[in-house]
Amino acid sequence: MMSLIIQKIKTITTQHFSLLKQADPDEDMINSYIYRAFLFECLYNNKIVGVLALNQTKENTLEILNISVLEEYQHQGIGSSLLVFTENFAKENHYSTLEVCTGSTSIWQLYFYQKHGFRITDIQTDYFLKNYSTPIFEHGIQLKDQLCLKKEI
């Protein structure tokens, strides 16, 4: 297991923004939440390898807005470490529910969140058609719907 440091982001850099865009290609969407979110970076050997954006949506609910790991560091447990960090942060700050939304064609993300105990609770039909100016394609399929998942902690 890698020795990771997860810490609050003090100043958003182009490197942070690039990682956020990896998980959400719409810059306007990212700009709509980065200044109100709890932002964290994940460091490995002093290199930023991941980012995490969280937001309170209800009194006891924390939403994962963005979680991203550099491609060359994926499948090494960093995303799971960021989720464990999220759960600990939530518990320490008296949240009892975690939420996350992802695309219906985001197969690996759906697998990842369900593997970590999240369950699908809602489908927002045509979310990406209504809220994104440029079409998004994953696995050769146009992304249209958003799936929302929840985990009680």
TrEMBL record:
Record keyword Transferase present: yes
InterPro entries tied to this protein: Acyl_CoA_acyltransferase, GNAT_dom, NAT_camello-type
Transmembrane segments: none
UniProt entry keywords in alphabetical sequence: Transferase
Molecular function in Gene Ontology: N-acetyltransferase activity
Limits of the N-acetyltransferase domain: 4-144
Pfam families attached to this UniProt entry: Acetyltransf_1
Record flagged with keyword Transcription: no
Protein name: N-acetyltransferase domain-containing protein
